[in-house]
Structure to design on (184 residues):
């Protein structure tokens, strides 16, 4: 599959690994893929992100991702479902952080099962890579570009897709920005 990735898509994957390295995570997550996409410039995905989530709004995006990490990656939908069962995720997070320190759930999630050798991709990140292929095939594109990775991130569900949608970055809006006649 990686032979079908464009230079820009490969750069995103490498950038995601670098983000994981810098953060001390033992696995590359879908959040690392998004951060690597946000680092890019001069590509179809970067143009779409600049249009849909301008640089002045990105600190809010980063804060929302950090908040999701504090909840051990639970989406708001997950937290609401647990609340319906009488489980207050916010109270649990507060109690865990009181006992083990700020970000304890995020650290556990990212560092669970420390592998040796190459940094593996999480199941969710692998799903993004697989969906990027499906998006490209559905569009009859021969190569997988970084725009396909961004589209796949909007489709996977979970905290990254939820956070992107909260900031106006959805499959529909990205498609319009990337594949419009005036797109780069």
């Amino acid at each position: 599959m990686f032979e079908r990735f464009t230079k820009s898509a490969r750069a995103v994957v490498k950038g995601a690994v670098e983000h994981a390295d810098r953060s001390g995570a033992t696995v590359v997550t879908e959040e690392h893929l998004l951060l690597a996409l946000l680092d890019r410039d001069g590509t179809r995905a970067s143009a779409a992100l600049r249009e849909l989530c301008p640089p002045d709004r990105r600190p809010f995006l980063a804060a929302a991702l950090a908040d999701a990490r504090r909840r051990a990656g639970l989406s708001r939908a997950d937290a609401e479902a647990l609340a319906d069962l009488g489980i207050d995720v916010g109270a649990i997070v507060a109690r865990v952080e009181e006992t083990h320190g700020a970000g304890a759930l995020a650290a556990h999630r990212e560092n669970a099962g420390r592998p040796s050798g190459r940094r593996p991709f999480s199941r969710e990140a692998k799903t993004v890579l697989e969906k990027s292929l499906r998006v490209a095939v559905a569009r009859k594109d021969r190569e997988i570009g970084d725009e396909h990775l961004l589209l796949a991130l909007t489709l996977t569900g979970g905290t990254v897709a939820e956070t992107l949608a909260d900031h106006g970055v959805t499959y529909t809006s990205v498609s319009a920005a990337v594949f419009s006649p005036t797109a780069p």
Remarks:
- The radius of gyration is 17 Å.
